[in-house]
Design a protein that fits this description.
About 40% of the residues lie in helices and about 30% in strands. It is of the alpha+beta class and about 120 residues long. It has a 6-stranded antiparallel sheet, with helices on both faces. β1 and β2 form a beta hairpin. It is elongated.
């Protein structure tokens, strides 16, 4: 019985470890269940934005910059186009007087936005 368990153990653990590693490397989140849940919502429902983490702030959105810019405007931020560098967007909040540098990674399935 113990031999059977020791043979099946790597088969069960390997996919879990791979999921955790992909989640950490691609999304900077330890819990792959949150990432999978967010990806399913973005891809297969009308949800446009899913917040994955609070600190650092990580947001998963439909693959469009317009969706995220609207999200930030609704949160009180305006984009500063003059300070944009490649995939880094700079947003300014007039109420608090703070700037946020937001980094975007986008592909055909989702866009990933991260900032502090």
């Amino acid at each position: 019985m113990l031999k059977k368990l020791t043979r099946k153990f790597p088969i069960i653990i390997a996919p879990v470890v791979i999921l955790i590693l992909v989640s950490i490397i691609k999304f900077q989140i330890w819990n792959p269940i949150i990432v999978i849940e967010g990806l399913i919502k973005i891809k297969f429902s009308d949800v446009e934005i899913v917040e994955l983490n609070e600190d650092p702030k990580i947001v998963l959105a439909k693959p469009s910059t317009d969706v995220f810019i609207k999200y930030m405007k609704d949160s009180g931020y305006d984009v500063i186009e003059e300070e944009r560098l490649g995939s880094m967007y700079v947003f300014y909040n007039h109420l608090t007087g703070t700037k946020s540098e937001v980094f975007c990674n986008m592909n055909g399935y989702y866009s990933l936005w991260t900032w502090n």
